[in-house]
Amino acid sequence: GDERAKNIDLSKELYLCSAFYAACKRTKNKIDLPKLVELSKSKKKEVVDMGDQILGLYPVDKKKSGSNKSSNSLTDTILASVQENEEAESRKRKIEERGDENDDVEEFQVWKQKILKRAVDAGFNKYRRYLTA
Asked: Could you give the 3-state DSSP secondary structure of residue 114?
């Protein structure tokens, strides 16, 4: 109990990956075990054994679910969430870039008015109609 809990170092990848493995197994989701083992920087046996120990700490469910409604794996769900976040960030950047474009257009209009004013001051009265003052 408490003694084992003191020995757990959550900064180590093994514990996090084992907990992820146990959660996937408990929720009956598919998992890419080779990728998980690679992330844990340890051996497959260590991840599976630790995950099974964590799974043993859960109380036993007496209810059996008839079917698994979700055919997506937990990994796919997480990846989809990350992709949605990246798409949202991309949209934000595009909006910010459009804002920069509006600033560029405004700066161009100011520059154009200065040039037209100089031309009119130099005697080119035909450009007076383009001035907005």
From this structure: helix
